[in-house]
Amino acid sequence: MLSVTLRQLEYAVAVARNGGVTAAAQALNISQPALSVALSQLEAQLGKPLFLRRPRGPAVPTAFGRDFLEAAETQLASMARLMAGDAAPAAPVRLAVFEDLAPVILGPLLAALPADLPVTPGVLGFEAMTDGLGRGQIDLALTWDLGLPLSVTREEVARVKPHAVMGPRHRLALRAGVSLAELADVPLILADQGLSVGHMRALFARRGLAPRIAHRTATLELMRSFAANGLGVGLSYTAPVPGQSYDGAALVTRPVLDAGAGEPLVLAVARDNALSPAGERLARLIAARRGFLPKG
Amino acid sequence: MLSVTLRQLEYAVAVARNGGVTAAAQALNISQPALSVALSQLEAQLGKPLFLRRPRGPAVPTAFGRDFLEAAETQLASMARLMAGDAAPAAPVRLAVFEDLAPVILGPLLAALPADLPVTPGVLGFEAMTDGLGRGQIDLALTWDLGLPLSVTREEVARVKPHAVMGPRHRLALRAGVSLAELADVPLILADQGLSVGHMRALFARRGLAPRIAHRTATLELMRSFAANGLGVGLSYTAPVPGQSYDGAALVTRPVLDAGAGEPLVLAVARDNALSPAGERLARLIAARRGFLPKG
DNA sequence: TGTTCGAGATAGATAAATGCTATCAGTTAC
DNA sequence: GTAACTGATAGCATTTATCTATCTCGAACA
Question: What's the domain of life for this entry (chains A, B) (predicted)?
C-alpha cells in the first residue's frame, strides 16, 4: 500500500522547478505552509531530505533528491498520459464476426488492418455473440442486426443486398439484376445457414409475393451446388461472388434490385462497455469500410 | 494538475484482481461503499466506465478498462519502486577532489570505477570545495580534513604518512623510514603546494622539534628537483612514489615513521545532504579503498 | 556586532476528503 | 416468488489538507 500521493510528488517537483518552497507555493496557488508540510511528509516517508534548505539561495535538491525528482517527473508525466486516455499497453481488440459472415468478411478485414492494431478475431453464433457482448468477453461484433438486445448499440456499416445464385444459362442470368417478383416465379433454393428461411420469406411477403421454395439445403455450399445444377435459383446474402460450386459447375450471382431488400450489417458494442483507444480505432476503420466488406 | 489519486488506481486494480467491488473491499480492509465511491469518482474523471457491473458474475473490465488497468498496474509498480528508493535515472555523482590530491588519486580512482557508476569529477581548492558541499553543488569530497566546517560529515578513508624525499645517496636514504627527530637535523625543503608549511612546522613543534627549512618551493615538482640535487630533504604527503625528478635526477622516498604523523584523508558529505544510491555506492567503494589510494 | 530581512517551519483553526454504518435497488438462483 | 448477494446511495464521523498568523533561524548589511 503506497502512502505517497501524486500531489506530494507534484509539489516536490514544483519546489525544484521554482527554486524554493515559497515560490513554488505561489506558482501552485497554495499557501507556503501547505507546501512546506506536504514536502516534509514526503521527505519523512522517504527517510531522506529532498532539498537543502538554505536561507536566501534557491532550494537545491540533495543528491538523492536529484535522482528522485527526475524520476518523479517522469512518473507524473506518464500518469498524466494514463489519465488522458492513451495508455501504452494496447490489449488486442476482441472482435466477433457472425459465423455466416466470417468466411466472406474476416479474411479481407484482417488483411486490411494496420500492423499496430492488434485484433483477436472470433467467429461466433448469434447467441454466443450477444452473450459475449453482455459479459464483456467481446468488444465489437460484426453481424446482421437480427434481434440484438437493447443493451447493445449498433451502427450500420453496410447494407447488403440479397443475391440470386444460378447457372450461367438460366434465363435470369441474362439480366444485370433481378427483382423479387421475378424470383417469386422460379423455384427457389434456400439454405438453412445464414439469414433464416423465415427472413427470406418475409422479404417476399412484404411485397405480397409468395415464393416457391423448391429446396432447403443445410449449407450455403449445397445451395450453390443445387443452383449450379439447375435445380432452381439460390438466394443468399453472403457469397455474392460468382465462380463455381464445389462440384465444378459454373455459377453466376445477380443482385436483387428491389429497394428495401438490403439487410443492414451492423457493428455492435455493449451499451455499457467502453472501447479502448484501439477498439475505437478498429470501429472507425470498419465504419470507413476499407474494401473488406461486400459491396452493397 | 492531476486530479486522480494513487489510491483510486490501487482500488481499481484491486477490483480487477478480486473480480468485484465487495471482494476487493474485503481484500483492502475498507468498506464496500468506500470502494464503490472511489471507483465511481475515478470513472467519472476518465469519462468512461472501467468495469461492467453485472450482478453475480465477476466484475469484468470494459475494453477501455483492460488497457487502463494494465497501465495503472505498471504505474503503481514503478511508483512503488520510486518510493523504495531505487529511482532508475542515476544522475552522475559529483565528486570533488582536493586539488593537491587529485594528480595522485583521481586517475586511478576513475579508472577503477565500474562502468555503471557515473561520476562527474571536479578538482577544487579547499574553499571552493567546502562552499560547493554547502551549496549542494558537490555530493562527495575527497580531501584532507583541514578545517572542514561542522556542517559536513567526514569519514576517514586513509591515513597518509608524510614522506621524506631525497637523492639516493643521502644518508637517510639507507633507512627504510625516518623519524621527525632525524629530519629536524637536516635542511628541509617544503613546497607551498599541498599541506601548508605551517602544518609541517606544527608536526615538528608537537614533538618539541624545530625544523630547519632551507628552501620553500612554489611547487611539489620543484621541491623534488631540489631534493634530487642534494639541496636538502623534501617533505610531502603526496607523491610518495620514487623515481626521478623532472630534471632527470634519481629520487627516493622514505616514510616518516612517527606515530601520529599520518594525516587523515577523509570523504566529506554535507550533513544535511542525502546521497543518491549511486552516491552511496561510490562512497562505499572509496571507503573500501580499492587500490586507488596512496598506501598509508 | 547588532539589525534587518526573507525563507521556511510551526500552531491552531477550518475546510475538504475519505471512510463507515445503515439502507436501498437490481439480479440471479432456487 | 422469494432468498441471497452485489453494488449504489445517504448521512454522519474521522482523518487529512489547507489556511492565517506567528515563530525561528541564517545571511546580508550597516
Answer: Bacteria
